[in-house]
Amino acid sequence: MGSLVDRHTAFVAALREAGLPVSVAEGLDAVRALGAVDLLDRASLRAAYAATLVKRPAHRDTFDTLFDLWYPAALGDGAAHVPDRPGRTLDAEGAPVPAPLDPVVQERRAELEGLLLDGDEAALRQFARDAVASFGRTPGQESWFSTGVLRSLSPETLMAGLLRSVLAGRERGGLAERVARRTFRDRIARFEGMVATEVRRRIAEDTGTERTARLVVRPPLERLDFGRAGRAELDALRREVHPLARRLATRLAQKQRAGNRGRLDFRRTVRASLGSGGVPLTTVHRPRRPHRPELVILCDASDSVSAFAHFTLLLTFALREQFSKVRAFAFIDGTDEITRFFAPGVDVADAMTRMAREADLVWITGRSNYGHAIKVFDEKWGDAVGPNATLLVLGDARSNYGELSLPILRELAGRARHAYWLNPEPRGVWDTGDSAASRYGAVVPMFECRNLVQLTAFIEELA
Questions:
Q1: Which pTM was predicted?
Q2: Is residue 290 scored above 50 in pLDDT?
Q3: DSSP H stretches of helix in 295-426
Q4: 47/141 same-domain check
């Protein structure tokens, strides 16, 4: 176990490695907070750490996962485990009997149903620990997994019996049933979470806490690579991208106002010159009429960045509300306009499916060909890039050693008011293999952009 100081130091380091912003001062605050609580009271210990180290609600799940690894609720089977309680019943060939025919499993399911009905959190947590000990071993007994426990007990199939128990004599389908269903759904979800926590604890005991933490902890949303985001995380990203889109539009508008003054106001200039004998020492300009800038997005949709393209659509959905006009184009080795897929309220995943099915993005090979894609874009839609437009290119700049069409891109960037390139690859791999990042970056300023932190940094750099 090591000393408490060593464990504290390792825990704080794990939080930082997972992407939580924990400063040295906050680590010291946590130490002082530990002196004010009972260290044997695990709930108080968790609360003291959370109060001093967690800044955002989105970081709480990561914090709790790591806390349960560094300060586990039990060791081994736990003090309350019954070691001689049987696991799955085996048939004559040594294979587990199907769960519906296994009396041991059915007995456990009945016990679980009673605990879910009572809502006793402590008893449910102990039951989860016992269930993992009995059903959580992988077939080869080399590790632990949640699937075996949940497949054996199938807690979601207990809903009908739970509702019968609490709704006896009441009308079905009414408010009482909806409330009961929501209550039991939450309890089942908590039980599944308890099983997952216990499995992680067992794995950590077998393979090491640090190694387990690296395997099971996903980075917080703002540091999650866009290419690794699942459907639920894309929904969360959408909520985070909208305010960033507003900031991006504001920064681009500010650059536009700062870069150009309005037309010369001749009458006011002459009137001002009367004080200097008719010499126009100071020119007066008319204020520019404020308007929202236009945006043209050119996005690589090839397999190598297909997950990043989900983020592109998220960003496009958000930006279309902030700019007077947004036109989006996708390419692989051909190019097509995809603005039509961005109807209000459309799901991003559905839009990606439609784009893959309907958009004309493949010319010959279906492999990235930036040069041909840029050439087609210029020939068909080059007039979309004008003096009021910002050109935003999103892609990894890997053209499979094909042509690059640098002169055409230079002309497009020259016609635009601003041009930027967001690259989802780490900067350390730019210019490796078929990457032409530096050559394209010499034409259009290129920024590494793999997560919300880097997107925010890009927006701040526009100031």
A1: 0.66
A2: no
A3: 306-319, 348-358, 370-381, 406-415
A4: no
